[in-house]
């Protein structure tokens, strides 16, 4: 059995807030300029942030021990509601990368978009994100 199958992909809920805070803090240096901008994430800060989001779906990946190790969100494109959606945010904890977790989240998002009639789905990243671009191409996104 593949290592990635030991991990669960599930919809986000507030029960994940503390785990997401820990994941973002551990992942901070992977983002240009840092993800947290020098202010460590807390469960309360994550909860407030999530309460303000209006997404099509938010996914978390949990390890066999229940630790939150990845996050992804899919949004409806404001200028093309119901016709185009986009992957707003993807992150995998540095200790859990190279286990196909991001690929599994992306596949779930593509399936969701297809099932809900979205003819277009986009994703973006910064040009120096050399880890992500090959994955996005494998999933079917084009540069």
Q: Can you walk through the features of this model?
A:
The protein is built from 4 helices and 5 strands. By secondary structure, it is α+β, with helices and mostly antiparallel strands. A hairpin with a 5-residue loop joins strand 2 (57-62) and strand 3. It is globular, with a radius of gyration of 15 Å.
The arrangement of helices and strands along the chain is EHHEEEHEH
Give the overall shape, derived from the CA principal axes.
Answer: globular
Mean pLDDT: 88
Indicate the low-confidence ranges by residue numbers.
none
Total beta-strand segments: 5
Put the structure in a nutshell.
The protein is of the alpha+beta class and 143 residues long.
List the helices and strands and how they pair.
Elements (H helix, E strand, L loop, with lengths): L7 E4 L5 H11 L15 H9 L5 E6 L5 E9 L7 E9 L8 H15 L4 E4 L8 H8 L4
Parallel strand pairs: 4-5
Antiparallel strand pairs: 1-2, 2-3, 3-4
């Amino acid at each position: 059995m593949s290592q990635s199958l030991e991990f669960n992909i599930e919809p986000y809920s507030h029960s994940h807030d503390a785990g997401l805070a820990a994941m973002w803090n551990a992942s901070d240096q992977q983002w240009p300029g840092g993800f947290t901008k020098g202010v460590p994430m807390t469960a309360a800060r994550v909860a407030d942030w999530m309460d303000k989001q209006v997404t099509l779906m938010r996914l978390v990946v949990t390890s066999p021990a229940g630790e939150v190790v990845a996050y992804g969100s899919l949004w409806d494109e404001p200028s093309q509601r119901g016709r185009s959606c986009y992957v707003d945010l993807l992150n995998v904890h540095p200790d859990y990368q190279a286990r196909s977790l991001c690929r599994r989240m992306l596949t779930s998002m593509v399936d969701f978009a297809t099932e809900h009639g979205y003819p277009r789905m986009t994703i973006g990243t910064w040009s120096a994100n050399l880890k992500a671009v090959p994955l996005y191409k494998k999933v079917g996104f084009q540069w």
